[in-house]
Amino acid sequence: MHCYVCAQKGKETVAIATCIVCGMALCQEHLIRSDIDMWEGGYPVPRQKAKKKLPRILCHECYSALT
Questions:
Q1: HSE (side-chain half, CA atoms, 13 Å) at 17
Q2: Does pTM top 0.70 for this prediction?
Q3: Cα angle: 42, vertex 43, 47; to 5 degrees
Q4: Pairing of strands 25-26, 17-18
Q5: In 2-59, which residue ranges form alpha helices assigned H by DSSP?
Q6: Taking a C-beta distance cutoff of 8 angstroms, is the pair 21, 32 a contact?
Q7: What is the pLDDT, as a whole number, of residue 60?
Q8: Which of 9, 31, 39, 47 is most buried by its number of CB atoms within 10 A?
């Protein structure tokens, strides 16, 4: 699998991860690993923030939307 962002620029770079939100394949240059707040609660609306943040792999667009 190749990095989607690199492919849009005409490059073929091996992807090493996928964004946990949108599923985009990402290379080392285009991924963001960050601790993100998690929410607990029942469907359909989470009710409270979890006590700990969890590490997540995100693309730049999803990272901007969540932080």
A1: 14
A2: yes
A3: 45
A4: antiparallel
A5: 4-8
A6: no
A7: 96
A8: 31
